Amino acid sequence: MSGHNKWSTIKRKKGANDAARAKVFTKIGRELAVAVKNGGPDPNVNAKLKDVIAKAKQNNVPNDNIERMLKKAAGDTDSANFEEIVYEGYGPSGVAVVVEALTDNRNRTASEVRHYFDKAGGNMGTPGSVTFMFGREGVILIEKEDVDDDQLMMDALEAGATDFLTDDEDVFEIRTQANDVGVIRDELEAKGYSILSSQPAYIPQTYTRLESEEDMKAMSKMIDMFEENEDVQNIWHNWENEDEADFD
């Protein structure tokens, strides 16, 4: 999931071709495996696993696939070798980028991430060089259709949300403390709301606007390269006018 224009990214993924969807399923399967390894196979006592299962369902992973992934994870000792790494850097014209990866080969992934930055005319930075420009918050997206915004706002704030945003014409965006996103998601689902997406996110504090078509093409290509990489789980950025770039 990429940073600023979150709903556009989700719509693109929901309409992705079979090959792209298979890659998403593979990434989620890796997350499930690590969650099971670290906290056990019962989502009722493993909050991280519960969150990943919710993510799988939000990405239209069939229940049968989720069950198979869980069974495989319960007996998979290799998943212990995966580690979570956050990479930071800059894209074209100084767009700030944060990349969350889950890898079993730190050297391979670092080399690939550096290559993507370089190819886009940017550069990979050191830890802390970019994340200070972002806040860490939970983000829950709910489609606006057939939803009473006043009631949703009241329900969300009652559940512990920190903010309620209505700027996007298609979705309501609910902000939470990063560690509270799963609990608040569950409360809203219990009240009948359909969740499009819910996860901790890096939220930009400031944004960078790209003016040249060349820079926008390079940034779009860089995002695509990151999202196609099986080690990369999420990419966050502060590119302000991403929705103006459509080079498909």
Summarize this, please?
With 248 residues, the protein is of the alpha+beta class. It has helices at residues 6-14, 18-39, 47-58, 63-74, 106-119, 149-159, 181-190, 213-228, and strands at 83-90, 96-103, 123-124, 134-143, 163-165, 171-177, 195-204, 232-237. The two termini are 18 Å apart.
Core attributes:
alpha+beta; four-stranded antiparallel beta sheet; 248 residues; 8 strands; 43% helix
Low-pLDDT segments: none
Q: Determine Rg (CA atoms, Å).
A: 18 Å
Percent of residues in beta strands?
A: 15-25%
Secondary-structure-based class equals alpha+beta
Q: Terminal Cα separation, in Å?
A: 18 Å
Order of helices and strands: HHHHEEHEEHEEHEHE
Instruction: Give the mean pLDDT.
Output: 90
The coarse silhouette is globular
Query: Approximately how much helix is present in the residues?
Result: 40-55%
Q: In order across it, which strands form the biggest sheet? A: 3-1-2-8
Total count of strands:
8
Characterise the protein shown here.
This protein has helices at residues 6-14, 18-39, 47-58, 63-74, 106-119, 149-159, 181-190, 213-228, and strands spanning 83-90, 96-103, 123-124, 134-143, 163-165, 171-177, 195-204, 232-237. The chain is of the alpha+beta class. A hairpin with a 5-residue loop joins strand 5 and strand 6 (171-177). The longest helix is centred in the first third of the chain and has 22 residues, at 18-39.
